[in-house]
């Protein structure tokens, strides 16, 4: 037998297996970015699943595989935006400050809320989701549960602590009391009835804590 005949046939190297997880994550990120940018550019009513898909470079069926509507896409993209911004800034999960000075703590949080509401990255999607949540009950419940309620519970905890230390009335209902700060701020932002500023936030704290009668 000749040396040639003893050679083994060359082994065929198998093709690498595609990393579907990496590809899916890349597509998901592209969809998030497309949804957020379109809402900022053309507004929520003119944003479509087809438009998001085209900008993200994916098929429409890819979006419908993960979400049932553009509202769900935008909500998830908005929640992810907040997480990404906090991670880039090296921030820990937000904790309501308790310095022993309730007024100062409330002013700090409301000022930070004003800054976030006016942030051009957050304002267009937040405004779109807030408006859509009024007419889309399912989205509204999810928006409240995943975004608003965790933040409101921070107010509740701080006001309960103030009640225990005697800084507010003993019969105070924290859930109702927090609306004195949060509701006017949200209304002014949503309806654009006046400018949002740190001075406005400070005035809300002053009026809510000390009332309207002369001191």
Report on the structure:
With 215 residues, the protein is mainly alpha-helical. It folds into two domains: 22-88, Tetracycline Repressor, domain 2 (Orthogonal Bundle), CATH 1.10.357.10; 102-210, Tetracycline Repressor, domain 2, CATH 1.10.357. 69% of the residues lie in helices and 0% in strands. It has eleven helices and no strands. The protein has helices spanning 3-6, 20-42, 49-56, 60-66, 70-88, 102-118, 123-135, 137-164, 174-177, 179-191, 198-210. α2 packs across α3, α5 runs antiparallel to α7 and α6 runs parallel beside α10. The termini are far apart. The model is unreliable at 1-7 (pLDDT under 50).
In short:
This protein is mainly alpha-helical and 215 residues long. It has two domains: 22-88, Tetracycline Repressor, domain 2 (Orthogonal Bundle); 102-210, Orthogonal Bundle (Tetracycline Repressor, domain 2). It has helices at residues 3-6, 20-42, 49-56, 60-66, 70-88, 102-118, 123-135, 137-164, 174-177, 179-191, 198-210.
**Fraction in beta strands:** under 5%
CATH fold group of the largest domain: Tetracycline Repressor, domain 2
* Total discrete domains: 2
Radius of gyration (CA) equals: 25 Å
- The count of DSSP E runs of length 2 or more, i.e. the number of strands, is 0
Helix content: 55-70%
The structural class is mainly alpha
Succession of helices and strands: HHHHHHHHHHH
Cα-to-Cα separation, first versus last residue: 112 Å
Largest sheet: none
